[in-house]
Amino acid sequence: MNRDSIIDILQTEGILPLSKYGQNFLCDEKIIQDIVDLCEINREDMVLEVGPGLGSLTFPLSLKTDNLGCVEIDKGLAEHLKACISNATIFHQDFLKFERPENVKIDVIVSNIPYYIMTDIMKKLFGEYSDARKMVFMVEDEAIARIDCKPGSKQYGPLAILASLYGGYKYEFKVPSKAFIPQPRTTSAVISFTRAATSDYLTPEFVKFLNSCFSMRRKMLKKNLSGIASSDLVANTLNHIGLNENCRAEELAPGEFVRLFKVLCG
Fold this sequence. Notes:
Elements: H1 3-13, E1 25-26, H2 29-38, E2 47-50, H3 58-62, E3 68-72, H4 75-84, E4 88-92, E5 108-112, H5 118-128, E6 134-140, H6 158-166, E7 167-175, E8 180-181, E9 188-195, H7 204-213, H8 221-224, H9 231-240, H10 254-265
Parallel strand pairs: 2-3, 2-5, 3-4, 5-6
Antiparallel strand pairs: 1-8, 6-9, 7-9
Helix pairs in contact: 5-6, 5-7
């Protein structure tokens, strides 16, 4: 889909991009194809697209596999996609409330993630879809500091830990604002993740545990976990894995959170 085709759809269908959903429609055909290529989709793959919008990625993705599912919060856009794409399943739902179908394994996940809700969507994906072998996202370029960061840094938190444990991360390329209709005020970037064995540790329960660990960043970790285990148990466990019992969550490496979780919640 290019700029002219998107403008035509918007005018013909009477669709107005909604800022509350962070709707900026990708209209650069080369970038669209580059993103689809990064997904490395096989014909038999189960593919999940979160927030398909007008279908800039959905159409080329549907040419790669017959097993494409898309979750779209906007009813008008969901109905538009249902009418235009026959070999994809369109779910009209808020992805944060979307329940993964039972016994369905997702192989590849792709999303042009709305900036305002990036962290929540990625945490859900890493926690509930960690068996997917590949994830490709478009995000706000500045927001990558919350994904690619180290312990002790200001940005370090649950999202960075989940991303690290899921697998290999790669910054692919920048996407200028002119590649969208309407144009956002910020630059975007495409990033990819390739599953590693450590993703086996990722579960919704582990995500909740990390959220508790960072609930009050200035507090000691054993205080933040008081609702999960006694301060003495947390302190003893921290000492056992070679950490100070008065440490804060931001001091722990991703693997140390896994060890702590296994003892306290396993």
